[in-house]
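Training component of the fellowship. As part of building independent skills, the fellow (R.M.) carried out the full modelling exercise for a liganded target. The chosen ligand was 3-acetylpyridine adenine dinucleotide. The inputs are recorded below so that the supervisory panel can assess the work.
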Amino acid sequence: MKTVAAPRVLIVGTGFSGLCMAIRLKEAGIDDFVILEKASEVGGTWRENTYPGCGCDVMSLMYSFSFAPNRRWTRMYARQPEILDYIRRIVDDYDLAPHIRFDSAVVAYDFDEATDRWAVRTAAGDVYRPRIVAAGPGPLHKPSIPAFPGRDRFTGNVFHSAEWDHSVDLTGKRIAVIGTGASAVQFVPEIAKQAAHVDVFQRTAHWVLPKLDRAITPTEKHLFRTVPGVQKTYRGAIYWSHESLIAGFMHPRLMGALERAARGLLRHQVRDTALRATLTPDYTIGCKRILLSSNYYPTLQRENVDLVTSGIAEFTETGIRTDDGAAHDADVVVFGTGFEIADRFASEHIVGRGGLSIQEAWRDGMEAYLGVAVSGFPNFFLMMGPNSGGGNQSIVFVIEAQAHYILECLKLMDGHEATRIEVRGGTQRDFNRRIHQKLAGSVWNSGGCDSWYLDRTGRNRAVWPGSSASYWLRMRRPGVDDFDLSSAEDRDEEDYRGPAVLEGAGLRLAVEVHLTGHLDPLDGHYHWYGQVAGDDRIADLKRPDAGVPTLRIGDGPLVDAILAERDPWGHFRITGVGAPPFALDDLLV
Ligand code: N01
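Fellow's submitted model of the complex:
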């Protein structure tokens, strides 16, 4: 492992989030940043998702940065290639390419308390030591593929909508599509034109509104290019029409008009009453993400398409068997089953202050402050983190607000000559208590459905409970009282790096430790923690029958220690409460 750079800011991801952050830094005169990208191309979700018909169900004029309007949109709802093209042009226009390191998937983030820098390790073994991390991995990033019984038995082609296998020619094939969400309603109409037969497996009906898509006329394009303010006026009109919907999302009894529009589309497009009943949801509109499509219902009524509503019992060698015993033969199975949202950090190695892992911090569920800062993880900013998603608005708008906020946090650090910024635990707790109170009555929580907005415990970890304008206002300026700001030089903390002896399970191991600690104002005890390495037998001390290991430095006190799991660097985390093994002012203990 080698340290390749120690930039002021490390951005992760080249989707809208990462690029917006980079542009804002450049505009503020901060050039000391690196962007790590796991792939060999920019674009985030718009690079990953290439399924037939892939496009955006937010109007294109709202789906660009406010400071970089796209004069080239060809449709009211842009398709994926156009959006990816826009993102590529942004990289060129803002000269971001020199900052990007492609093929650099991050595998571990560890906070170094001695230097107030993160050690960010890539799969290739490179280590970056930035002061600040701005991570924009995207919430809809990890495909969710349910573990249906016998899934591996199927001998045909299988892939997820976000990992479309374009080498598989669908012409004349029998295709099984599992899922009827935002992705499926876009690709089912396209593949049905090619396939011999498509079975669409619906578990829950979704509300669908017509997609009022059309080409942007030559006159409009001309006006956008030549008359200042016209495109901005269009954008403003779209923004406020979306914004007005928030009242219904927060107060579901106001959703009547939207539900009538959805029922109207269903009545108009589906004449068969039995099929119409099957496609009519039994929950309030908006509870699950509302789908926009004018060709999904007509597609389901094609000769070569069947809607299957019996549950999936198992996969067989030749297809899918449903709970009613029917066999649905297929050459290809496509999972349109969405993404792991609430568990998306379950296997991420992010270790903050005091050896706190993101899994420990979020054992009761993901939570952050304003979707960007997490207590215990100093100098680390998430983009599109928990409860910052706009339920009714373009996510690009939200991202801009977040990039602005993170930049303001950097300025706050400068103003206080701080090398560390961390949101206070109490601030984060109060904030989350308030937003979850507000969300309780929202349509997402109380509309009578299950959705990816809710985690296993039924808590909404996805959506901001209010208008996007209210979010934007909150993100204008970070409150100085919301954060702990300090500098590594001034911090009154003990720190020990060097040899020690670890004992337990009949072993006496010479090890190397790096330890620090703090007096916890809540329980009044000194908590020490850090890393231990240097002997492969340390793992033996973690056996259930090994007893409590002890640690001693030189001829200092012998103290009980707790060993945690090994990190990817080969260190074990070690913690203890009470007198630490290293010299410390007695008054502090
Ligand atoms: O995924 P989804 P998606 N057995 O989670 C079904 C964004 N997006 O990829 O409703 C059977 O919406 C599941 O059934 P149910 C957008 O934010 C944006 O379509 O849970 N079925 C559902 O029908 C969107 O919300 C654009 O009962 C199972 C489907 O799979 C998000 O991505 C375009 C199942 C999953 O639907 C995800 O959309 C496309 C199981 N075990 C997507 N598990 C834009 O235009 C899941 N399902 C911006």
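The panel noted the following from the submitted structure. The pocket of 3-acetylpyridine adenine dinucleotide is lined by residues 56-58, 140, 146, 161, 178-184, 203-204, 289, 312, 336-339, 452 (CB under 6 Å). The first strand starts at residue 2 and ends at 5.
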